[in-house]
Amino acid sequence: MPMQLTQALQANFINMNIVSLKNLTLTYQSLDSELLALDDISFDVKKEEFVSIVGPSGCGKTTILSLISGLNKPTSGSIKIMDKTPNLKDSVCGYMFQKDNLLPWRTIEKNIFFGLEIKKNLNKERKDYALTLAEKYGLKEFLKKHPNELSGGMRQRVALIRTLALKPELLLLDEPFSALDYQTRLELSDHIYEIIKKEHKTAILVTHDIQEAISMSDKIIVLSARPAKIKAIHTLDFDANLTPFERRKTDKAKELFDTIWQEIQNEKDKI
Amino acid sequence: MKKIKFSKAHYDFLRVYNTKKIVVLVSQISILICLILAWELLTKYEIISSFFFSSPSQIVKTVGELWKSGELIYHSGITLSETLIGFAIATGVGFLVAFMLWYSDFLRRVSEPYLVVLNSLPKIALGPIIIIWFGAGSKAIIFMCILIVVIVTILNILNSFTNCDKQLIALAMSLGANKFQIFFKLVLPSSLKDIVSTLKVNVGLSWIGAIMGEYLVSRAGLGYLLIYGGQVFNLNLVMTATVVLCVLASFMYFAVALFEKIMKKHFN
Fold it and tell me: Which positions in chain B touch A103 (Cβ < 8 Å)?
């Protein structure tokens, strides 16, 4: 019996929902209007799953991330991150923004330590961990440089290492590639995908780029135009060995692209 | 560092650059020399009246006399100390108030109309009130100096604080930063440049404040020498005080510029 129990627990852990959203709604208040931004959003994200959220622009994709991170509070419904309500103080989320937000007056090394510093967690062990990550992912020779000496792709990689240094359970990626040129974008999404898989992280990616979502995700959530509702959820079953770049070239990816494109196009017509 | 060998074109570029720099400097100095020379000659041959215009040689003589009698150090010292005290207090208070207004949205909104009115009020108009409150002495002059400097300092620094990149703040907030962390790790470092340029403006304003204060009340200081010299038609004294003022103000400006250079080096 105890044996079975342990197994059941383990199985439970593997299938554990890192994120669980139930009937989430959010209304923005302003002086002369009320705007329903999110309407009855429910979905789960399992451990080590990579989930993308796509939808027409301005539909509230980023809002969902800000709710999960705890930067914003929902009007109704519940959010559980590892069975707890999101809390900025001891957050398990690492938030990556569209802009790398590196501090120009700090060296790359000091930028990587920024999150640890804010969390008052800057001890030898954490520092070493952050530096190991930086070294592992090709930033070693840049540690003493300043952000303006690095390319856009490099800078975004620094931002990822800064986030990973906090050992977050869940990565929130808010269009982290959209400010980059196409070439860098493809390269960096391969890199970041590899890093996330190697470090066994769970991730939620918000993007307007359907191909990007297809190339990286295990699950894609399609949102409707505002107020955002869940329009469709696609579960992807690509060969786990394919890199995002290789995935893009498969027929399956092209088919899926057409389906999701159509779903979003229908929504745009409604506006 | 490895020494890099540059192409001939690069050395040509450097030569042109340096030549330009030297030409500018030489022009600046020769204009000064020409002005002084013309002034001296015109007054020497009484083409313009040396009584109304004084002359470089007389100014030098007056400086020598004032130096010997100890008055030069005495009067400059008084004005300089008033300026420095006014500058320091106003900058400090201005910075502190700006911080409080940045910290509390409520305070900022409440104080806004007061700051606007105080900023547009010509501070010299408060002269009589200041004399009655503080008496006719150094205290009144320093207060005048502070009044002139502090409001501008608050407005400039507050503006710089509130202009800090919102995205950076969102990042810090997503990491659970409190307001003090946001201030010291983001807002302050990103405002350093504006703070230094505020200091530069404040140097000029403090001199204005001190001299204006001395015009109103003093019995000593460079402002007093200017007023006194004007009243007794001693143009030598007026010109001398003006020249000394120029020299002191430029020294203070260069001190701030040096401070800026050090900061730049330190914070990249």
Answer: 168, 186, 189
pLDDT of residue A13: 53
Contact status of B196 with chain A (Cβ, < 8 Å)? no
Report how far apart the first and last C-alpha atoms of chain B are (Å, whole number): 19
Superfamily of domain A2-92+169-270: P-loop containing nucleotide triphosphate hydrolases (3.40.50.300)
Do the chains contact at A146 and B170, CB–CB below 8 Å?
no
Residue B179 CA neighbour count, 13 Å, CB half: 9
Residues of chain B above pLDDT 90, percent: 74
* Confidence grade of residue A1 (pLDDT, cut at 50, 70, 90): very low
User: Looking at this predicted complex, what is its ipTM?
Assistant: 0.81
The string of pLDDT tens digits covering residues A252-261 is: 899 999 999 9
Return residue ranges of chain A for CATH 3.40.50.300: 2-92+169-270
CB contact under 8 A, A88 and B190: no
Question: Does position B125 have pLDDT exceeding 50, yes or no?
Answer: yes
Provide the 8-state DSSP code for B2: P
Interchain contact B29–A (C-beta under 8 A): no
